[in-house]
């Protein structure tokens, strides 16, 4: 693969810059050294020339001076002829003229000019004197040696003088040369410092540039990596990549090209996702209402059946069919029909909670998939029915379409399911069958597919209606089940409600208490129970055998949560004359935990008057020490489900022992419910439970039978 220009440039640029910097530094250093070298060697050459001239001068003048001495001496001793003397004189004159040139040359030299002007002038002056005197002395040496001698003596003085000058000049010249040498070295050092600083600054600048380039490149690479990871995880049809858009606009070369390619890839991806979504919408959604269609519902049904079988709760499939929709379609046309369907769908949508699925499964048919939290089939069925009835009543209204009013109702079929045994097709078919049943039953109603559920629902509906009149007709009774201590002595009784139905006979509270709670009838009913129980307590106070018995009354959560509950109990005690300390109220965890602070407050108010409290069905709920510790309780009732299996199931035995231990730790009395066998009682006794209630001793009985039993005890 060929490397691109920009990338190559980015990687080569630092190396190139370093190279340029090194070349520049090298060039400047060499150039500076060269010019300094040339300059100093010129000066040195000149200085040497001057020194050379000076030494020649010294040598020549000494030689000449000796010749003068020899000549004058010879003249005095008449050793030379006049001709010889004259020749020698002429020669000396010439030589002195040459030396004069040397002296002038010296005086003109830069070195001497710089050194000491006076010394040079002194040298010139004394040499000039010496020259004149030496010429005069040698000129008259043949004629008058004595006068020549006196001239020579004066010349000697001048000679001595310029000898001093030349000596001084020699020293000055040497000093001067050394000074120049020092200056040259200092210049070198300065040049070195300059080059060093230049190199350092240059290197720093290059490093800075390299860092800036590296930072920029790594920023681009990081942006590209981020964009790639966003692209690979993207599921949205709109993905913003601002960093890459900036890169595309600001970078040419490879990074610009990569950015363009990424943006192109992103655009393709967005188009593909949009197309997929559109496809998905067309496949799984209804074009008119925008609701999921039958296909999506089938998918969800498969999933829901799987989920239900795993978590053991229920789902309900509701099939909704608008009553007599065909007539509207025929009379007002399809467009009006469509509008009506949209308004209808909107109305239902508002009634559902998050997680429920509303789908359009046919022309005027809709389906709803409900997830029901209830674990019990009957409760789940009731909830499904409640939702369906709610829909029936909410959609039953007048719809305005194209200036005409239409009153719509709906028939709903319900299929309740909790496992995977049925296919989604089967579930839909059965819900549809149930819908036909609702239609057949007269429209605008709800019907379950499962006949047993339907029967149960019908029975409950009937019972609910009858329960309303039961109180007025005095069909409610209280039965009493005695409670015993470890010596099988009766210590009290629990009041248990019965409904003496004219056709059905005795109806169990398990059947009608939930109904009474749903309808709110539990409030007057519970009040009646407390009043009746207190009246019995007042009677018991009169009897010797019954005086010390405690009577336990069940209180439902809804009843206990009534703001005037405490007031009502205290008023009843007062009106009936029953002793508060003989009355025990049985609460369930649900009654207490709804609002624990409020519950504690109410319990304390009643306890102050002597009323005691038992926690019913203990062990089936939260049963935590945390809250138990806070509640002002007198008794815990071990739920009969644990007692039932105490002999066979070691787990239940452990639970019971734990409950007993908790009771002992908190000084709360423990009583076992549902004791049916002596074996159970013995085991309970061995664990430390000293109070019992159950068929082993007696079943719940009407008051007269209970009294007979008490008398025979
Ligand atoms: P609960 O308060 O736990 O009452 C004990 C239930 O166990 C009673 O059922 C009783 O008949 C039954 N039972 C007692 N001994 C045995 C036994 O040895 N074996 C078996 N298998 N069962 C035994 P019942 O009378 O059908 O009452 C059911 C529930 O209805 C009560 O459970 C209580 O929660 C509620 N209830 C009864 N009367 C009233 C009432 O006046 N008000 C309210 N709110 N609830 C009531
Ligand atoms: Mg009870
Ligand atoms: Mg109980």
Describe what you observe in this structure.
It is elongated, with a radius of gyration of 64 Å. The protein has four domains: 13-204, A middle domain of Talin 1; 242-283; 287-449, Alpha-Beta Plaits, CATH 3.30.70; 466-712, EAL domain (TIM Barrel, Alpha-Beta Barrel). The chain is 66% helix and 14% strand. It starts with a helix and ends with a helix. The protein is of the alpha/beta class. The protein binds ligand C2E and magnesium ion (MG) (2 copies). One magnesium ion (MG) is lined by residues 494, 554, 586, 616.
CATH class of the largest domain: Alpha Beta
Tell me which CATH architecture of the largest domain applies here: Alpha-Beta Barrel
Strand content: 5-15%
Strand order of the largest sheet: 8-9-11-12-13-14-15-16
Q: What is the count of helical runs?
A: 24
- Biggest beta-sheet profile: 8 strands, mixed, barrel
Morphology call? elongated
Q: How many angstroms does the end-to-end distance come to?
A: 107 Å
Mean pLDDT, to the nearest integer, reads 88
Question: Pairing-aware structural class of the strands and helices?
Answer: alpha/beta
> What's the name of the CATH homologous superfamily of the largest domain?
EAL domain
Domains counted in the coordinates: how many?
4
**Poorly predicted ranges (pLDDT <50, ≥5 residues)?**
none
Q: Name the ligand types.
A: ligand C2E, magnesium ion
How many beta-strand elements? 17
CATH fold assignment of the largest domain: TIM Barrel
**Helix fraction by DSSP (H/I, runs of at least 4):** 55-70%
